[in-house]
Amino acid sequence: MASYKKKKFIVKHKKIRKKIGVKKIHIITAAILMICILAAVLFCIVYFLKNETTRHSVVTKNITTDNTTLENNMTISNVTLESNITTDNTTIDNQTTQSNHTVLVKPKLAIIIDDVTFERQLNDILSIPLKITPSFLPPTIKTNFSAKLAKRTEFHMVHLPLEAMSFKNPEEATLLVDDSYDIILQKLKMLKAQFPHAIYYNNHTGSKFTADFDAMERLLKAMDEVGLIFIDSRTTADTKAPKIAKKEGKRLLQRDVFLDNVIEKEAIKKQILLAISKAKERNFAIAIGHPHKETIAALKEFAKECDEVEVVYIKDL
Predict the structure, then answer these.
(1) CA-to-CA distance for 237 and 247, rounded, in angstroms?
(2) What share of the chain is helix, strand, coil (3-state, %, to 5)?
(3) C-alpha separations of 81 from 8, 72, 125, 259 in Å
(4) Which residues contact 23 (CB under 8 A, 6 or more apart)?
(5) Cα dihedral 207, 209, 212, 216 sign
């Protein structure tokens, strides 16, 4: 009996322990399940927060980019607008300037006074309030100070003596038709040493020399070599200078009007008007006179009413 009870107790005890074991398993399983659920929820929360942060960063970046792009576009637009405005203003200014230049540009008239030798003559020329171009005769034994006088001027020329058809008193350094190239070159180099700042030379007399094609060709070639420019005084209608210049494709400046073939003030004033008319026809003209008191007086009167042309040095044509 005791043994039976003992067995029964043992069996009952085993059942109780079995029940307790099952409950523990259920509890542990439930705990594990809860932990998994909590981990899943926590993961979801972390994932959500991370996505929110990333999305916010992207939105902020896009907003910043859009703002930067907008600002850049506005800046570019402003710069373009300012550039267009500046360009338009510049164009308007240029057009206005060109228009003003068109209105203000006057025909140019160069006035050369030949045969300048003495100080009194130079003083008379300098007293005229215009850009008159004095042309100095080369120094001679009797009058050896023309080169010194030339240094007083802002601009001057050399009045080159050339052989005439008939001239009673030719200058000492007159070039002759029969002079060789070497002789011409030597004389030009000597003159250049005396007048180092003079580039333009016009002929004194020279009706015979300028009418000779070969002589003129030698002269112009020598002038090119020395770096001088010839102005044709046109002392003869038969001058060969235009033909040679055309042949060599060079520009030739030449006299349009003699001011004082008649040495009377009123006659000279008429010649000045003729020179103005010539300048208006082709935008420039060259007039040649001499240091006569009548010529100086006429030019001084002209200077007071010189509004139709611009009187310039020969170098400015």
Answers:
(1) 18
(2) 60, 15, 30
(3) 107, 14, 57, 59
(4) none
(5) negative
Task: Per residue of the chain (317 residues), give pLDDT as tens.
Answer: 555 555 555 555 555 555 555 566 667 777 787 787 877 777 767 666 665 555 545 444 443 444 444 344 444 444 343 444 344 454 445 454 444 444 569 999 999 999 999 999 999 999 999 999 999 999 999 889 999 999 999 999 999 999 999 878 889 889 999 999 999 999 999 999 999 999 999 999 999 999 999 999 999 999 999 999 999 999 999 999 999 999 999 999 999 999 999 999 999 999 999 999 999 999 999 999 999 999 999 999 999 999 999 999 999 99
C-alpha span between 269 and 257 (Å, rounded):
12
How far is C-alpha 15 from the geometric centre of its chain's CA atoms? 118
Q: Which domain holds residue 276?
A: 108-316
Q: Do 29 and 91 fall within a single domain?
A: yes
- Please name the residue that has the structure tokens 């000492």: 172
Contact 136, 147 (CB under 8 A): yes
Whole-number Å distance between alpha carbons of 148 and 144: 8
Write a three-state SS string for 199-253.
Answer: CEEEEEECCCCCCCHHHHHHHHHHHHHHCCEEEECCCCCCCCHHHHHHHHCCCCE
Q: Which of 51, 81, 102 is the last residue of a domain?
A: 102
Compute, in degrees rounded to 10, the torsion defined by CA atoms 143, 144, 149, 155.
100
Q: Say whether both 96 and 116 belong to one domain.
A: no
150 and 190 in a single domain? The answer is: yes
The domain that holds 260 is classified in CATH as 3.20.20.370
Residue 33 one-letter amino acid:
L
pTM over 0.85: no
The answer to whether residues 278 and 141 belong to one domain is yes
